[in-house]
Design brief:
Layout lengths: L1 E2 L14 H8 L1 E5 L2 E4 H15 L5 H27 L6 H14 L6 H8 L4 H20 L9 H14 L3 E11 L6 H16 L4 H8 L8 E5 L6 H8 L10 E2 L3 E12 L9 E10 L6 H15 L5 H7 L6 E10 L8 H4 L11 E3 L2 E11 L9 H26 L2 E4 L2
Parallel strand pairs: 1-12
Antiparallel strand pairs: 2-3, 2-12, 4-5, 4-7, 6-7, 8-9, 8-11, 10-11
Helix pairs in contact: 2-3, 3-6, 3-8, 4-6, 7-14
């Protein structure tokens, strides 16, 4: 990271330039000429503590601030990169995402803003974070995804590796990754990693902390299923020692610290084969409890218009980013015999990328999409399409991290903290 001292006149004697000195004291960082104020940083720190259920104490604030400043710098760089690609985020996009957050937390209209105000947090702090998340998601799925290509040979090689690992353990895991790129004080990052781990051992939610601190690709840190050869040996060994929902101590690698949690454990091939199965997307469209039938119908029509161009489940995932009220869950290898009777007629004959008619839920409406159908072969192996999708996700994670590193190397960043 290039660190350059901007606006040298701010270093002149305070007595000569009191206004400039006061301005300098209010600046936490300058990112390619754009200012992050200390007030912005204080507000974001309070938001991070609230979102991750960490104690709002002076000691915790001081430990979290440095990480939040790095996140805000990343955020500015992401928004700037998206702008260069002519990707914009409208006020309506942000409002829709805030409404979705309120709905997911069972809040009435305006409840989220009231909660933030009660904690002394300005809505602008959340608005900026949402804007950065949406801009980055669009950049990744509209620009970076073009760099992804998985060859047939690579799929065959991975299939051979899976065949060799049949019967060996694999782990559904998530991580919080704290990067050391451009960090002057490694002890500060290690201290934060240890403190976050301690709070999770005391009951703070892993996913909530991951959403505020993880510097890896996925916002929630979900790694999917991993097995031998897919993670560093040290990380895989640490996972093998966990029981579900346990958390590792911070693990130092060449580029940062990792905190892992185990969600599930099984053997490679376990539960696969032996009968026809479906890979599916479940799409939940959440509505405010106060929404009437007409409003829900308009919301559903808007979702259908957004998803109409989709030709695959990957398209549905990418396009759904434009509908913040929609949440997606991918279900793999669902035996057709285990499908609820009400779902079977909804998905019969669905084309790739097509969504079903909805079913009503307490929170809104639910749709289904079929990503793939596989006849059971009894060998416990995933299909070539499954492997390709997984490898594409892995490539996209690597491309994303490299892009972030390149953004930092080409940026002019002045940290005043």
């Amino acid at each position: 990271m290039n660190v350059v001292r901007l606006f040298a006149f701010l270093l002149l004697p305070v007595a000569l330039f009191p206004a400039y000195a006061q301005a300098a004291e209010s600046v936490a960082a300058v990112v390619n000429g754009e200012i992050i104020t200390r007030h912005d940083l204080e507000q974001r720190t309070k938001l991070a503590l609230l979102s991750s259920n960490l104690p709002d104490t002076p000691d915790m604030e001081s430990r979290v601030q440095a990480a939040q400043l790095r996140r805000m710098v990343d955020e500015d760089l992401k928004i700037q990169a998206a702008t260069r690609e002519k990707i914009s985020v409208s006020a309506a996009d942000v409002t829709a995402q805030m409404d979705a957050i309120g709905q997911q937390n069972h809040m009435a209209a305006g409840g989220l803003a009231k909660l933030l105000a009660s904690k002394g947090i300005e809505t602008a702090a959340l608005v900026q974070q949402i804007k950065g998340d949406i801009a980055w998601s669009r950049l990744v799925h509209q620009v970076l995804i073009r760099k992804i290509h998985v060859s047939e040979d690579a799929v065959s090689t991975r299939l051979d590796a899976i065949r060799a690992n049949l019967g060996k353990p694999e782990y559904h895991a998530a991580e919080i990754y704290l990067s050391l790129d451009g960090v002057k004080d490694e002890a500060q990052v290690r201290d934060l990693a240890e403190r976050l781990t301690d709070q999770m051992h005391k009951g703070a939610p892993f996913e909530g902390i991951a959403r505020q601190f993880n510097q890896g690709g996925g916002a929630d840190g979900n790694l999917g299923w991993v097995s031998e050869g897919m993670l560093d040996d040290e990380l895989l060994t640490a996972l093998s020692r966990l029981q579900p929902n346990e958390v590792t101590a911070p693990i130092r690698t060449t580029d940062g610290y990792h905190i892992l949690t185990l969600l599930e454990k099984r053997k490679v091939g376990e539960g696969l084969g032996g009968g026809s199965a479906l890979d599916m997307l479940i799409i939940d469209l959440n509505s405010l409890t106060s929404a009437g039938q007409a409003e829900r119908d308009m919301q559903m029509q808007r979702l259908k218009e957004i998803l109409a161009p989709a030709k695959s489940c990957d398209d549905l995932v990418a396009l759904s980013k434009q509908a913040p009220s929609a949440s997606l869950n991918r279900v793999e290898k669902m035996p057709e015999a285990q499908l609820p009777a009400a779902v079977v007629p909804l998905i019969k004959g669905l084309a790739p990328g097509q969504i079903s008619e909805p079913v009503d839920t307490p929170k809104g409406r639910r749709f289904f999409a079929v990503c793939g159908r596989a006849a059971g072969n009894g060998d416990g192996l995933p299909s070539a399409d499954d492997i390709r999708h997984q490898m594409e996700d892995e490539q996209l994670e690597l491309v994303t991290r490299r892009y972030l590193i390149d953004m930092h190397r080409g940026a002019v960043v002045d940290l005043r903290q």
